[in-house]
Specification:
Layout lengths: L25 E2 L5 E2 L5 H20 L1 H11 L4 H13 L3 E3 L11 E3 L2 E3 L10 H14 L5 H7 L7 H9 L10 H23 L5 H5 L27 H12 L12 H7 L15 E15 L5 E8 L4 E6 L1 H7 L8 E11 L2 E11 L4 E8 H5 L1 H15 L9 E7 L2 E6 L9 H10 L4 E5 L4
Parallel strand pairs: 3-5, 8-10, 11-12
Antiparallel strand pairs: 1-2, 4-5, 6-7, 6-9, 7-8, 9-10, 11-14, 12-13
Length: about 450
């Protein structure tokens, strides 16, 4: 710390914000430096900007968050963080829509709509072409209508596949698999029509137009477009995976949403809160596994660096060799996992050191029903503690959490028992607890 040695009043003068190369320090005397001597005008400007953004967020939340998402659309971590913020503000983010989306994130009603520019494989020329066609002749009614009206030299087959896979055509046809199959036929059909128009030839029904009294026109010429045989839609998990690949996020749904309430009982900490946790704090989190990078140590051992995410954000996790040898088979990309690990701060980055993992689909919890009297009576608590201790066995094998449900009048309170009281087998634990007059049942993380 450096002290200012002398100060001298020079009267009232105009104040300027002084920019100094590399940092905002000032030389005082004999080479000594006074750090962070910000001019008042500098802090005033920051304060004013903070006031403006706070005002916009409070009074125009949709417009503010849409602008924030657009401005940071190139930063996946920030966008996911802001999407999580939107959800906490009860603002829903919708996937792109071929008839409603613009270039960027757009407020629409009480929701924010994904823009075309956020979809991979959809370039600026394709976007301009789509918007021009929509503005000129109205909404697109079908895939064939779309392909016939846009310039397929700008909107190529890969672009169309990306728009279908990310859900942009869902309002027209929710069966994405059917659209992909239809596209194989419709794309060539539309190209053929475009060539006919370019050479001055016309389709018979185009020539008849509205003048025919003998030929009954149904909807329009697009009814005659070829269609593939009906096929079932993609499974929900497949649709979400394609959304994630093309948008960078799960938008229409999230694989962890269905288990949000039950997982919060077991893992109350989410990834966005890792920074707030103490060094070496042991915690568990329910996550999606996005990427596995295998690493070979100098000794030749295998380890891995994981990219994980939950509903609140993304983080990095490290699996050291001894743990990796035990859990490597479970580390499959796009799988839902419950991870136990310690918080580690290294190189100004917070990450998890993984100690154990388990597939969400196999996670069980023992739910113990307790009356208020049982929860407060020392004898009852000691009895319950003794039973759980006996069933815990070796710490590494005890993977079944125990949750207490305390009933007091009309209220029910959940209590998580410490890791030392977790057990090895859920079914046998329930039987022993019931025999000891503690009502209990097994609950799966993915359902009842």
């Amino acid at each position: 710390m450096v002290k200012i040695m002398t100060r001298q009043y020079v009267g009232q003068e105009k104040v300027y914000d002084i920019g100094v190369e590399n940092n905002h320090n000032f030389v005082i005397k004999n080479g000594l430096i006074a750090s962070n001597c910000f001019n008042k005008s500098h802090s005033t400007a920051y304060g004013y900007v903070t006031y403006q953004t706070a005002y916009l967020k409070a009074n125009y939340p949709l417009e503010y968050m849409a602008a924030l998402l657009t401005a940071n659309s190139g930063d996946t971590d920030k966008v996911q963080k802001y999407i999580s913020t939107c959800l906490s503000m009860n603002i829903q983010i919708e996937p792109p829509d071929i008839n409603r989306s613009g270039v960027d994130f757009t407020p629409l009603g009480d929701k924010i709509l994904f823009g075309f520019s956020a979809v991979r494989n959809v370039g600026q020329n394709a976007i301009a072409c789509i918007l021009e066609a929509r503005e000129a002749t109205g909404e697109f009614k079908s895939l064939s209508d779309f392909c016939d009206r846009v310039d397929l030299r700008s909107v190529n087959r890969r672009t169309l596949e990306s728009l279908i896979y990310c859900g942009a055509f869902d309002k027209i046809q929710p069966n994405r698999h059917q659209l992909i199959k239809d596209l194989e036929l419709v794309y060539d059909w539309a190209q053929s029509r475009a060539k006919d128009r370019a050479s001055g030839q016309g389709n018979l029904f185009d020539l008849l137009g509205g003048f025919s009294t003998t030929v009954k026109q149904t909807n329009n010429v697009f009814d005659s477009a070829p269609k593939a045989q009906p096929v079932p839609d993609f499974p929900p998990q497949k649709k979400l995976q394609m959304e994630k690949e093309l948008l960078g996020f799960y938008v229409s749904d999230h694989p962890l949403k269905a288990i949000k309430s039950s997982s919060s009982v077991l893992a109350p900490i989410n990834l966005s809160q890792l920074n707030e946790q103490k060094e070496d704090a042991l915690l568990c989190a329910v996550v999606m596994l996005n990427n596995v990078k295998k690493v070979t140590t100098k000794k030749g051992d295998q380890m891995a660096i994981l990219q994980i995410e939950d509903l609140s954000g993304q983080s990095e996790a490290v699996v050291f060799p001894r743990t990796y040898e035990r859990i490597s088979e479970l580390l499959q990309v796009d799988s839902r996992l419950i991870i136990w690990g310690k918080v580690d701060r290294r190189d100004e980055q917070v990450q998890l050191i993984v100690e154990d993992v388990e597939a969400v689909e196999t996670v069980q919890m023992v739910m113990v029903e307790l009356t208020l009297q049982q929860a407060t009576a020392i004898e009852e608590r000691d009895h319950l503690r003794k039973i759980l201790k006996e069933l815990a066995g070796e710490k590494e094998k005890a993977k079944v959490p125990v949750i207490g449900i305390i009933q007091a009048g009309n209220s029910r309170q959940l209590v998580r028992f410490g890791r030392q009281f977790w057990v090895q087998d859920a079914r046998s634990t329930v039987v022993l607890l019931q025999n000891a007059k503690f009502p209990a049942h097994v609950k799966h993380l993915t359902g009842n």
